Amino acid sequence: MVPHRTQACRRTAMAHAFIAKAVWNLPGTKDIIYQFNANAALRRLCAWAFPWEVPSESTFSRAFAQFAQMELPRQISCKIILRQVDSWKVHL
User: Fold this and answer.
1) Buried b vs exposed e over 17-43: b needs ≥16 C-beta within 10 Å?
2) What gap in Å lies between CA 64 and CA 21, rounded to an integer?
C-alpha cells in the first residue's frame, strides 16, 4: 500500500476490487488477489500500479464484509438504473 494515499482513496480502490470480483464472478478473495497479481491492467483499474500495492487477504476480507453490510452492490445497481432512466428521459 502506498503510504501517502488517503483512507478514502484506499477505500475507493477496494470498492473497485469488490465490483471486479463480482463482475468476474470470482468465488473467493484469494481469487481476486491472484488476478490482481497476474493482470496489470485489472490492477491499475483499482489504482494499484504494482503487485506489492495490492492489499492483503485479511484487508480485503474486512473491506468486503463492510461493503456487503453497507449493501454496496444494491446501491451501485440503483445508481446505474437511475442513470439509465435519466438518459431515457433525455431521448423521449
Assistant:
1) bbbbbeeeeeeebeebbebbeeeeebb
2) 10
